[in-house]
Every structure is written in C-alpha cells, then in structure tokens.
Amino acid sequence: xxxxxxQQMIISFSAVFIVLIVIFGSLILNYNISSxxxxxxxxxxxxxxxxxxxxxxxxxxxxxxxxxxxxxxxIIKAVTYRNSVQEVDYAVELYNQREVSSKIKQxxxxxxxxxxxxxxxxxxxxxxxxxxxxxxxxxDQQEWFNDANYIDTKYIRFTNFHPADYLLDHNNRNTVSVIxxxxxxxQYYAAGRAFLMSDFxxxxxxxxxxxxxxxxxxxxxxxxPVYFSNNSSLSSVQKERISEGLANGDKSFTVAKSDVHxxxxxxxxxxxxxxxxxxxxxxxxTEIEDMKSTNTTFVIIMIVIACILVIMLSGLIxxxxxxxxxxxxxxxxxxxxxxxxxxxxxxxSMEINxxxxxxxxxxxxxxxxxxxxxxxxxxxxxEQLKVLQHQINPHFLNNVLQSIKSMxxxxxxxxxxxxxxxxxxxxxxxxxxxxxxxxxKQELSxxxxxxxxxxxxxxxxxxxxxxxxxxxxxxxxPKLMIQPLVExxxxxxxxxxxxxxxxxxxxxAGDEIYIAVTNDGSVVNSAEVEHINNILASQDTYxxxxxxxxxxxxxRLKSCFGMQAGVKMLSREGMNTSIVITIPKRKKD
Length: 589
What we know:
about 50% helix, 19 strands, alpha+beta, 5-stranded antiparallel sheet
C-alpha cells in the first residue's frame, strides 16, 4: 500500500523514537538486575568452560591411548588372524589372547575406562577387557553403534549414552563409548573391518566449581541430551525448550517456567572442539524474575506517554520538511524524464541545498562521462581492429604454407605433419578474443609452438631458451602478448643471418613480474630506441602507424594492470636487443 511522504515521515520518526524509548525503558527495567544477571552468566560460563576443558583433555587422552592400542602390531596381528580364518587354531589364539590382554590394559592409565572390546568384521566381539560380554551380540544391529558421531578425524567416533546390554552384568546401566577403527587389521582382506570400543564413565569428569549448589550441568549432542543429572528439577517441557534453543544456535538463553515446574532458567552453553558435544550450565532465575516484575508497570506507563509525544512531534517535523522536499522531488522527476538543464532553487535547509548542489554536479559529470564513453568506445574499436589485423601476419602464414608445399614436393611427410600440427595449434589459440586473459604457461606454450614452426621453415636457425619461475605458471596475462615480440626479433634481428639466439626470461621481482625477450641480432640505433620508448611513455598509441603490435601491447597491458605496466626497449651497440614487459602484481596475488 502506497503512503504519502508525510505519512512515511511520521511513521519513520515515530518508529525511530519509539524504538529509542523502548530501549531506554528496557535499560531502566534491567538496571537493577543486570549486575546480578551478568554475574550469573559469568559464573555459569566459567563452569561450562571448565567442564569443556576437563572433558576435552580427557577425550584427547582417550583418543591418543585408543589410537596407540588400536595401532599396536600385536593387536593388529591377532585381529587380522581372527578375521581371516574360518577355524581358529587355539594354540595361536591362546597366545594372541595373552598379547591382546597385555596391550589393551594400557587403557587403565585413564582411570575411567569401565570396559573395552575389540569387534571383528562380523560385528561380534573378538577380545574384551573388563566385564564379560554377551556371546553372539551383533553391534551392527544397534542404532547407537551405527549413529556414533565422527570427531576430529574421519575414523574415530563417539556414541551418545547407550545401554550396556552387551555385557553380562550390565544391570540396565548406560554408558558412553569411543569407537576406534583398527585401520590396518585387514590390509590384505578388503572386506574385513575391526574396531576397538572403549566404554568410559563421564560422571567423575563433570563438576560444578561455581560454589552454587543450585546449578546443573548437562551434555547435549546437537539437540539430543547425552548426559542429564538424575536429580534435575526441570520438566520435560523445559528440556524440550532447551533443545529448541540449541537448535537455533543460541549461546545463552532463558527457559520459561512451565505448569509443572514454575521456575525459569538461564542456560549457557559452549561446544567441545574434540567431541562436538555441547556443555550446558543451567541456573534458576527466581530472583531475577522477581526484580523484573517490580519495574514492569512503571516502564510500560512511561513508554505509552512517550509514544504519544513522539507521534505529535513527528507530525510537526514532517510538515516543516515536506514543502522543500516536494520541490526537490519535482526536479528529480524532470531529471528522470531526460532533461539535463535543470536548476535548483536555494532552500532554507542546508541539507536540501547540499542535495541540490550534488545533483547539479552529478548532471555535469553525466554529460562529461557520456562524452568520454563515446570517445573511449571509438578508440577501443580502433584498437581492437588493429589487434585483430595483427593476430596472424598474412605474410607469415603465406611463408608457412609455401614451406609446407616445398616439404610436400620433397616428400618430407614427417615435417609436414609437424608443421601442420603446430600451425593448427597457433590458429586455434589466436582465433579467440585477443583481450581474454590466459595463464602465463599457456602464452609461453603458444610462443614455443610459434618458434618451433619458424624453426621448421628456417631449418633450425633459431636457438632459443625459456626460463620461468614455477609459481608464475598460472598468473593471468593478456593473450598474444609474447609472440609479437618473438616475431619482431626473428624478422628484424635475424635478417640475413644463418642462425640466431633468442631467450625468453620470466622473473618474479616481488611486487612486479618482468618478461624479457632478448635476441643477439642486429641492434636498433639509440635514436630509434629513444623514439619508440617515448611513444610508449606518451600513453597515446592510437594514431601511430609503425610498431603497431608493440604499441598496442603496451596499451593492453596498461588497460589490464594499470599505468605501472608497460613495454620498454633496450638496445645498444655491443649488447643484445631486449624488449622488457613489466606487470605489477595485483594485491590479491
């Protein structure tokens, strides 16, 4: 539903001030209870973190000892034997039982291990330590075994509290277990599996060190309780609300009173990094709730009075702002219709005047940018045409075809195959948009194909070397960046020579990348070098008729990497001729 500007302003001002009033009222409401509540939260949080530290330390030790036992070679040997034979040699088995019994006793160092079993590939126990297990008990048929959670690795798992009915003397008790795979137990039998399952007692690990006897400690796996004190006074409805709060990801929340149990609770929780369990501290909020109820009536009356005043004030403010805003809106509607000659009248409002000045400046920028865009599009079209015209030199292509023809006449099929393959790669690489960025190793591979094709034409005249830092292989560079430099070196540097040396060096200089194409052919006189470098530095190559490839490459580099990028020629009598490309690294690289 559409509303008027005045209505919007009234609603906006009222909403903002009402929110501020509600916040102010809430501060007053919570003033007397915030200190106690913060102290309660800090106390619970310390207890929770202390319990997490205790549990994590214990579980880390348990994981370490379980890995040591599970990876023991005597245990691996015994389990491998039991998993791989149909009939047991009791002489061998008696020896294995003694060895396994001595090794599995290492779990005693933890103190809270109540029972340990080694489970074979048929998911029945093979060996045990502690209470005697039920023969023929199938662990793979137990939901708690299959639903055990993986922890810091993809191998070790923790169960939630589950019945210990696999023991003869279980007495209907529940326990928690860690399941460690015996990874190498059946390395020669792909179907075999084995586990070390250790039951441990979590009660001695959990403690309330807050000094407040009314605090309760609970452990959840996600939203499911793993451990809850038997003397807990929370109702089933309140426990369900705790699960909902954990499902929402809240680190601290309150649980409202229920019909069965008329006491609210503050719940603080943290997650163990080892087991993934959530440790909860639960404290009743009886005293805090009494303090809240005392101040509620006063705050509500104050908020109602303040809201009435805010609505009246919002109406007056909106009326004073509406008229100049309407005039400003008319001007903007004219701009939206396409007019560019709009002028803004001065207003009494500094803000309206600032908007008017900004709009006038914006109109000027739009006109200037429009002209710049048109000019840039013209230049870009011209540059693209020049680049496309020089992707494949028609003279080079004709010479390659003539060379292939000569090979055909002489019957050199191997050279024909090699030449046509290289020519196909060159043509395939160059037909795409020349402004696409490619990986540096692709550009170098294309350049090597080009040199190889030229060597076929000139009977191996070009002796070249290529050096590139490995960590620059995937750096993005403009397509067809190096080949034009190699082509110039061959065409101008090796003219009237039987052979020539060409090197391509790519170096990582920290903030910049240097690519140097060097030949030992004829040098360029210093005046010509200075002239070309001056043109490259002038940043305007669109009207040049010479060295189009070099100049366009310089412009493309600046477009891609900024004004610090570019091309420079170095040549002097007694020295080689080099074309050096400079590419500044992007910050993200």
